[in-house]
Each structure stands twice: as structure tokens, then as C-alpha cells.
Design goal:
Blueprint (H helix, E strand, L loop, with lengths): L1 H22 L6 E3 L19 E6 L4 E6 L11 H12 L6 E3 L21 E3 H9 L4 H10 L4 H14 L22 H11 L3 H7 L3 E3 L5 E3 L14 E9 L3 E10 L2 E10 L6 H16 E7 L4 E7 L6 E5 L4 E6 L8 E6 L2 E2 L8 E9 L2 E9 L9 H39 L1
Parallel strand pairs: 1-14, 12-16
Antiparallel strand pairs: 2-3, 2-10, 4-5, 6-7, 8-9, 9-10, 11-14, 12-13, 15-17, 17-18
Helix pairs in contact: 3-4
Length: 425
């Protein structure tokens, strides 16, 4: 009995899961990128203290907002994004143990340190977390010194990676983020560095960590946690902060709101409060979460166009959307606001076969293209043979002509009969 009850319960759970997928309208919806991204061009109705900003919807690699995003500026510890990315590529064994020496702490006065001490034994992986989470300059020096590379050679590798990413407005001359005329970037370039680095699983694991304990017992916390008492940062899934007098307060981050993923860079926030970059970040995320979402542009089985079929028993072919298609749009856009325009064949004839493209349906809003849908002939049409069809038409016309001729002859005969009858009378 117990065994049968377990089987029944499993079947019930399986059926519930199946029903959930069947009834969930989002399971089969395909999300695609808007064709004309100018539909996102608008001023934010919020107060921003950062001078340089760039925001992406990373699900679609979609640029949503930018402000002075190509201006070369000091980037403080956001430099360490490239530092960690380069170290991961340079060090073969991240589990290898290193010993912290006195030269690690040279020239670090005034810069944030993770808390290493001379003689500590830690791994390279420990050092990477120490660089990213508390922004430890001591961990940067320790990693570079033990990597077997000179500082100059390591900086050369950082700049080589920037060149590989085709970054025209980025240059590094240190791995810490010290203010320097030769250490700069832009919000746009930093977003590209971060996107590329996040493709690396090790980097992503470190970037998205909030806490970590080194082999020497040193506990590390991400700088984002220091704002947890006053700001809700739960939706921020990964971050790297930075601050210097010249750079102001900076923050790179990735976040998820309502199953939509974002990447945001804010630079040059007013340093009057170290929380300004975080506040700007949360305000921007909140704005887009409230005002934008994925909306259905094409609905499964939606009738898009009706085409006449020539020379076939079936007289009409209906173009329908084969699936739900969603696009990230302003919540103010209603279904009735979207205009659909068809461009393609005017009618279907025997030359068009199953699988052939019929045309394109364009979804527009305010004369801006949201997306397009390619329509194909999805079924085999039974056409009449052109010669037979011509013969049928000729036969029909001939028969019709004969019929009309016979009718006319009969009418003439009737008239003659009537005239004869009148004469007899």
C-alpha cells in the first residue's frame, strides 16, 4: 500500500508539473531583440548623481540608456575588473599556495586592503576574491608579484586584452585603480570588459560572490553589503565598487528584476556620500523594472494576413504566428498601439511551394520597427495543372457561350411563334 501511494504521489506531482508548463503563457514565448532600438531613447524621470552611465538588458544585449558613456574618465577600482580577468588568464593553477611577503604592502597607504599579513599562506583564488570583494590593493600586489611577471609585463597584458576587445578609449598603467593620466576608460568600454569577463565561469563565480573565507581564515565581504542596512541590494547579483578623489564614486553591477537581466556601469557619482553610486544604480534598475517588461508582439495563432490562392481548390491561405513572440517594451505600449504591415506576394500560385517565403510582417509603434516576422507557406497546396486549368476555363467559357447562344435562339423562336399567332388572329 505504501509503495502504491508513493507511485500515486509521484504521478500527481508529474501531472502538476505538466499542467504548469501547459498553462504557463511564458514557457513557450520566444524573447527577441527590438529591431529599432531608438524606441528606448528617452530621458529618465529620476535624479541621477553619476556623470557617466551605461545600461544594458543583457538577455538581448540591448543598450537601454547611456549618459556621457564614451567620455574618458578615471575609473578607480573598477580597474580591478580587468586585473582579475587578466590574472585568471595568466595563472595556470588558482589553487596554488603563495606566501605573503613585505613587498606586497609597498606604496599602499591610502588604498583599501583586504587584511593580509606578512607570512600569510593563501591561494591565488583567495587573492582573486580579495581583489574583487573588499577591493584589496594588497591582494592585487600579492597576485602580480607571485605570478612571475613584472608589474610592467602584467600591465602590458591588461592593455593587450583591451586591444583585443577593440577598446579605443581604455588604457591601464596599474592594476589597483590609482588615479593616473594613463589609467582611464569609459562607461561603454567598461561594460564591454565586464560582459566579456562574465563569459568566464571563474570570473563570474568571483564577481557574484558576496562573502568568502580565505585559507588563512580571513573573512571577506563584498562592498555592496556595507549598504544593506539602508538600501535593498538583494536584486544585485554581482558588483565591483570604486572610489578615488578624481574618479568619484563608481559601481559596476549585474542585476535581475522579474526574470530580466541587466548590466549597469555608473561613474563619477558625487563623493559627498559613498552611497550615491549605489543609490543611482538602484534607482535606474527600479525605473526600468517599473516602466518596461517583455510584452507579446505576436501571439500564437494570431491572424497576420490572408492571401488568395490562384488555380487551386483551396481559395485562401491564412498567415498565422506560429508562436508567442515577446519584445522588451515600455509598459505604456498597448496591443492596439502596434501596427502590422505585410510586404510580400499578393497571391499564391502554382509556382510557390511549401517552405517558400511569402513575405514579412513588420510590427511598428510610432513608425518605429519593433520587430519583423518572416512568413512561409507551411502546407502543400493542391493546384490545378496550368494547362488543364486553362482548358477548364476555355471549356467553361465555351459552354457558357453555347448556353447563352442557345438561350438567345430559344428566345427568337418564341418571338416568331408569337408573331405567327398574332397574324393568324
Amino acid at each position: 500500500m505504501i509503495g502504491s501511494d508513493i507511485v500515486k504521489n509521484k504521478l500527481i506531482i508529474l501531472m502538476l508539473i505538466i499542467c504548469l508548463f501547459i498553462n504557463n503563457p511564458y514557457v513557450y514565448a520566444e524573447r527577441i531583440k527590438a529591431t529599432d532600438t531608438s524606441i528606448y531613447e528617452k530621458d529618465l524621470d529620476i535624479s541621477i548623481k553619476s556623470k557617466n552611465i551605461i545600461l544594458y538588458n543583457t538577455d538581448d544585449n540591448l543598450l537601454l540608456y547611456k549618459l556621457n558613456s564614451d567620455e574618458r574618465v578615471q575609473i578607480a577600482s573598477l580597474t580591478k575588473i580587468m586585473t582579475v580577468y587578466t590574472l585568471i588568464d595568466t595563472i595556470k593553477d588558482l589553487n596554488k599556495e603563495v606566501v605573503i611577503t613585505a613587498d606586497v604592502f609597498k606604496d599602499l597607504n591610502g588604498y583599501v586592503q583586504a587584511g593580509l599579513k606578512e607570512g600569510d599562506k593563501v591561494t591565488y583564488e583567495d587573492l582573486l576574491y580579495g581583489i574583487m570583494l573588499p577591493s584589496g590593493a594588497d591582494c592585487v600586489n600579492a597576485a602580480i608579484i607571485n605570478s612571475g611577471l613584472t608589474k610592467e609585463k602584467f600591465i602590458e597584458l591588461m592593455n593587450k586584452k583591451a586591444k583585443e576587445l577593440n577598446l579605443k578609449n581604455t588604457k591601464f598603467d596599474n592594476g589597483i585603480g590609482m588615479d593616473s593620466d594613463n589609467n582611464y576608460s569609459t562607461a561603454s568600454d567598461l561594460s564591454k570588459i565586464l560582459m566579456k569577463a562574465l563569459e568566464n565561469k571563474t570570473f563570474k563565480k568571483i564577481y557574484t560572490a558576496r562573502k568568502y573565507t580565505m585559507k588563512n581564515g580571513l573573512k571577506l565581504n563584498s562592498t555592496i553589503l556595507s549598504y544593506g542596512g539602508t538600501l535593498n541590494t538583494d536584486n544585485i547579483k554581482g558588483s565591483k565598487s570604486g572610489f578615488t578623489d578624481k574618479a568619484g564614486v563608481c559601481l559596476s553591477s549585474i542585476a535581475e528584476y522579474n526574470k530580466t537581466n541587466y548590466l549597469l556601469i555608473v561613474l563619477g557619482a558625487n563623493p559627498a556620500s559613498k552611497a550615491n553610486a549605489v543609490k543611482d544604480t538602484l534607482d535606474i534598475y527600479d525605473y526600468y523594472n517599473k516602466h518596461y517588461s517583455y510584452k507579446k508582439v505576436f501571439t500564437k495563432n494570431q491572424v497576420l494576413k490572408k492571401l488568395n490562392i490562384k488555380w487551386a481548390k483551396k481559395k485562401q491561405y491564412i498567415i498565422q504566428s506560429k508562436k508567442d513572440i515577446e519584445v522588451y517594451l515600455d509598459n505604456d505600449i498597448e496591443p492596439d498601439d502596434i501596427e502590422y504591415k505585410y510586404n510580400g506576394v499578393k497571391e499564391i500560385n502554382y509556382k510557390i511551394k511549401k517552405g517558400d517565403k511569402l513575405g514579412t510582417i513588420t510590427a511598428k509603434y510610432n513608425n518605429k520597427t519593433i520587430t519583423t516576422y518572416d512568413a512561409y507557406l507551411d502546407e502543400k497546396i493542391d493546384y490545378y495543372h496550368p494547362v488543364l486549368y486553362t482548358l477548364m476555363i476555355v471549356s467553361f467559357i465555351t459552354a457558357l457561350s453555347s448556353y447563352i447562344s442557345i438561350k438567345k435562339t430559344k428566345k427568337k423562336r418564341k418571338k416568331r411563334k408569337k408573331k405567327r399567332k398574332k397574324k393568324r388572329k
